[in-house]
Every structure is written in C-alpha cells, then in structure tokens.
Amino acid sequence: MYYKTQNLGDGTFSRIEDQKLLKSRQYVFTTAGSPKITQVLQNTLYPEIMEANERILLAGSQWRFEQVVWGELIFNTFDITRCGLSGSSYIPLPEKLKNCKGIININNEDNKCFVYSILSYFYKEDRHKRHLISTYRDIDAVLAYIDALFGIKLNFSGLQFPVSLHQVHKFEKNNPRVSVNIFGLINTTSCRLYPLKNVDQEKEFHFDLLYLKCCNDTDDGDDDDDDDVDNIYSDECENEEAGESDN
C-alpha cells in the first residue's frame, strides 16, 4: 500500500492511497539441477521486489510505502508431453471477466488474434472501434497509421499463425522497442491469473495479453484466443483482478 498527501489549498491535507503491483521475473524449477525455492526467494525474488519498490519511491511522485497488503506465489506445472500453446480465433470471455473494463476481446474468425491484440493497443482513444474486427481488416493501412502516429514500424514477419507461445520471443526480437507478457487463467470460475510469459523489463511499447482456451476444446489450438489486457490490476477491477472487453 502506498500513500501521499495532497494540499487542498485551505490549510488542510487529504490522504491518497493506492495499491501498486510489484512483479518479479518468472523462474523455472526442474527435478534436477535447479536451486532450492527458498534460495531463489531470498537471493533473487525478494531483492527484485525491493528494487521495484525503490523505483516507485525514487520516481518523484511523492508516494510513500506503508505496508504489504497481499503477496502471491504462483506455481504453474508445465507438461512437455502436450503440444505448445497458441492463440487462434475468438472465444467469449468468462462471465466474471465481463464485470469490469480492461480486456479487449476482438471477435475475429481467422487465426490472427495475436496480431489484432497487438494492434488494438494503439486504438485506446477510439473505444467505439477498438474492439471491432472491421477496424483491422486492412492491416497494411493500420500499420501505416501506427507508424505515422506512434513512430514504430511493427514487424510481424516470420510468424506462423496461430502464433504459439515460443513465437512471441521472435516477435519481440523483430521489434526491439516491444515487450509482451502472456497471462493464463487458473480456472474460468475464479478467473485468477498466472504468468505464462513474463518479461524481465518492460519496453517502450508493452503489451499484457490474456491467453484463453475453450474449456470443452481439445488441445489442437483451434479455439485459443489472445486478448489485449489494458488494466488487469487497475483500481476499478481490484476485486476481480481482471477486466472485460470494451463495449
């Protein structure tokens, strides 16, 4: 929990509170050759959190640290016998994610949900068109618009659609000013999130994407979906820990 005081101009002050999410890197543990979890917590993870806290305090925003409200350590089991994760076409959001704003879920019929999720980031000011697939029909025109307005030439070359999780690193390599986090759902009832891919450092253009999979689907990837997550831990969604598609 962070707080700061604001001068109201009449000799009185108001207290402003805010909860900020401090993330660490993602670590891999195997049955052999991995350090103990306690060693990673003490020597690496805790110092990372403290460094993130110091960056907030030194940013000149007048925030002051008060207390830790909650902490969460999530373990995700990876089964190498299953096929790789990949995004594809549209999947409706779970009901619980439709109760607050934060996720753009584009209703596409092809396998390029990753592309649309990235492009939608640049349409934040056009909330009436941002979630519509018609906005992105002419991808070349959209890329030219993004280049002219934001000064970045997005490069999707070399990607195979649907884009699998390991291909996201290729996209980041093709676009040095871009970083991408991928989140999954522990289950569709609680809608609690866990990181599938978590970058060490967020770049100038950073994207938080939510990976969805149809619960009745097989593992062929045909009904997987990537959504652009704007404010996945915003104040308006703090009780849900996620958002919903716009309009």
TrEMBL record:
Lineage top rank: taxon: Eukaryota
Chain positions covered by the region annotation Disordered: 221-247
Protein name: Uncharacterized protein
